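Researcher: We plan to redesign the surface later, but first we want a full-length starting point. Tokens attached.
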């Protein structure tokens, strides 16, 4: 077990399965294809440029990433997938959260009543330590423990 402490953007507690990206996460390129399906039950990452996540389901998981990148629609994409019940359960950033992701996380929590947990500033060591499939215990105080 290893514990990391970050800054709470939106609080929550959960034990979740990790999906990990070591590069910036393009919300539009990753989520648009699944989100446009009327009866989508999950977001399967469609961004072929993200070799870590391409083809993986992120719905209900702890999405571990350095930052988000891409279009200025990034925040609205996060809000939209949260409104449809398709968002990750947590977004865990190794770096400070960028403004587009922050806006989406806040819109999801405030306007969509989606309990999207978000912690940033977890550090490079966090991203180097966590692996796909690890179980993560997330506390409301910003601690993330790798259980596996």
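Model: Full-length starting sequence:
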């Amino acid at each position: 077990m290893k514990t990391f402490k970050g800054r709470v953007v939106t609080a929550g507690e959960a034990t979740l399965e990790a999906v990990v990206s070591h590069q910036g996460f393009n919300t539009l390129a990753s989520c648009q294809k699944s989100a446009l399906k009327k009866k989508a039950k999950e977001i399967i990452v469609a961004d072929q440029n993200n070799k870590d996540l391409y083809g993986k389901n992120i719905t209900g998981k702890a999405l571990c990433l350095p930052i988000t990148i891409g279009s200025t629609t990034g925040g609205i994409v996060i809000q939209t997938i949260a409104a449809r019940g398709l968002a990750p359960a947590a977004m865990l950033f190794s770096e400070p959260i960028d403004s587009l992701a922050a806006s989406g996380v806040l819109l999801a929590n405030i306007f969509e009543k989606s309990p999207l947990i978000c912690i940033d500033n977890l550090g490079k060591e966090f991203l180097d330590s966590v692996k796909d499939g690890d179980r993560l215990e997330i506390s409301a105080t910003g601690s993330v423990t790798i259980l596996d």
